[in-house]
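Ticket #4471: structure output looks truncated?

Reporter: J.K.
Steps to reproduce: submitted the chain below (138 residues) through the standard prediction queue, then opened the result file.
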Amino acid sequence: MAWTYDPALTALKDQVRFAIGDTNAGDPLIEEDSEITFCLSQTANNVLKAAAYACRRAAAKIIREVAAKGDVFEQAKAKEQFDAFMRLAEDLDKESSVLNPPGVYAGGISISDKDARVQDTDRVKPAFTADLHNNRRG
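Returned output as attached by the reporter:
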């Protein structure tokens, strides 16, 4: 595979590229479409989480490539790019959390829900119950 981008943003891969600003074929951040696909697979196809994942990969690549060079100026420039990608990754994670908040479950609200949980044979037995201190002897 190669680097591709469609500004129509119909494919998740293109949405990830858009989110990280990887829209210039002449200067790709993530060189292979398969790498973007991998980022999506690691984040259950959550575009913003995949974009944050891709930013961290791009940051790691920058540091790895420049670490081999002894040029102090190049290392300082790479550090700035690294920091920028890591900040973008953090921002994308926050944005994803706002747009896709984790689900909240409040159990025991309905009688049927409570009964279903009590009858679930795979459920871990609770350490405390409502009748924990009831004296069951005679």
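Triage note (M.O.): checked the attachment and the full token line is present. Residues 72-99 form the longest helix (28 residues).
Status: closed, working as intended.
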